[in-house]
Design brief:
Blueprint (H helix, E strand, L loop, with lengths): L2 E6 L5 H12 L3 E3 H5 E2 L3 E2 L2 H12 L4 E4 L6 H7 L2 E5 L3 H15 L17 H13 L1 H11 L4 E5 L2 H11 L2
Parallel strand pairs: 1-5, 1-6, 2-5, 6-7
Antiparallel strand pairs: 3-4
Helix pairs in contact: 5-6
């Protein structure tokens, strides 16, 4: 495991898992939310997103967490390991709300400076609908990009914990 893509719904724990994996493997973690957002929630262009990610995946080793479906193929094709955090939507929703309360009006550690945490009903709807709208597409991508790669699907916080405790180190 030298090039690891972590994907999953908002609130699934991608950033936390990425940090923990980074510490265990001593591989730099890149949080796409911190890289692709500019202050005051200004997004980067699709071309800039592609350019940034192509630079990241050209490195010898990396962990990249984030979805960004329009550029997902860049990461999945370059990764040797793909980890999908397929966590139940109730848990994801709970975590997202908890995170909103914890970091309200502040920038969380895995987010770009100047992007203060705020309540976002559209984001919460996206999380709730993720199993029907995004997960089928993710599973298709995993099937498309699985040849010669280690694809790991973790479906609960307990599985994530067991993976970190047992599969590594």
């Amino acid at each position: 495991m030298n090039k690891i893509a972590i994907i999953g719904s908002g609130g699934s724990g991608k950033s936390t898992f990425g940090r923990q994996l980074s510490e265990k493997l001593n591989i730099e973690v890149y949080h796409l939310d911190a890289i692709l957002w500019k202050p005051n929630w200004a997004g980067t262009s699709k071309d800039e997103q592609k350019s940034i990610q192509q630079e990241l995946v050209a490195q010898e080793s990396w962990i990249i967490d984030g979805n960004y479906g329009g550029t997902l193929d860049i990461r999945l094709s370059a990764a040797d390991t793909i980890i999908f955090l397929d966590i139940h939507r109730v848990i994801c929703l709970y975590r997202a709300i908890k995170r909103t309360l914890k970091y309200r009006n502040r920038t969380r550690p895995d987010m770009a400076e100047g992007c203060e945490e705020k309540f976002d009903s559209e984001f919460l709807k996206w999380i709730w609908k993720y199993p029907e709208t995004r997960k089928p597409l993710v599973l298709k991508k995993l099937e498309m990009f699985s040849k010669g790669k280690n694809v790991i699907i973790l479906s609960s916080p307990k599985e994530v914990k067991r993976f970190l405790e047992g599969e590594i180190g």
